Amino acid sequence: MVWVSAAAFGAAWWLGLYLLARDPRKLLLRRAATGLLAFAVAVVADRMAGADPWFDGVRIVLVCAPVLAFSGVFVRLLPAGVERVDRWWRAGLLPLCAVLALPAAGGFLPAGYLLGAITLLALLGTMLGMLGQHAEWAEDARRSAAGLLTVGALLLGLSSALILLGLNVLPRTAMLSVTAADLVVLGLGIAVLDAYDEGEELRADMTHSLVLSAATAAVFGGQAALTLTLAGERPALVALFFGAIAAAIGLQVLNGPLHAGADRVAFASDPQLCAARVELRSATEALLRKGGVND
């Protein structure tokens, strides 16, 4: 089942980095990326820990982290009173969840179940608030995004509740993979909304990033997978396998910022050349996003 975990990890890791790379200055994208990346970490941690009882509390905290992050995403989508509700979310809900997470991770499961209940209620409550106030969305892009967010939130709430309650509807690894699919649906909804707000075309840019990331992960992760197959599922090899996938996807998705940083070091004595290279890369990336969704 390590291959199922790898697919779930790769999807969540790629989309989280993709959203972050779109514009790390946007709080909405940062929170959505945090939820996806946190879940990717949860998949690896669950794979490494297996069914050890000591990990039950940590698993609850890791499952609640993306649920909490996406409740913060829905808060930012409220059209009225955003800043006030966001202050309550940051100053009230986040500290409360942090306080509950400490004993939960230490194995005090009642605190974990309370943490799960609070985060799930926050997710569903903020989702209903967002949808109720955005009922007038008529544009095709925003309506499709609202549909993705609604379906993703409901499925995420359901799958997370099943994991938290320990209901073995599917094997644990399969349940985590289903949750990853739910988070990907939510991430796609956020990407559609961001592309609409920026007047950009999303499909070509996202497909280009996904294909290259998947190919790169297959090349580098495949070598670790071969070693894993021949030598058996040892913890060090499992860590190497997921590390290779994470590094390959990260290098591909963050290709632009990494090149920009390298240029600043390599061409520090020639700022005009550095600026010209940045401009050329920006123009190339803009071609993939050409054609506004507002047209």
Automatic annotation (TrEMBL):
Coiled coil: none
Domain of life of the organism encoding this protein: Bacteria
Keywords for this protein: Membrane, Transmembrane, Transmembrane helix
This protein's record includes keyword Transmembrane: yes
Statement: the UniProt record of this protein carries the keyword Disulfide bond: no
Transmembrane parts of this sequence: 6-21, 28-45, 57-75, 87-105, 111-132, 144-167, 173-196, 208-230, 236-254
The protein's name: GGDEF domain-containing protein
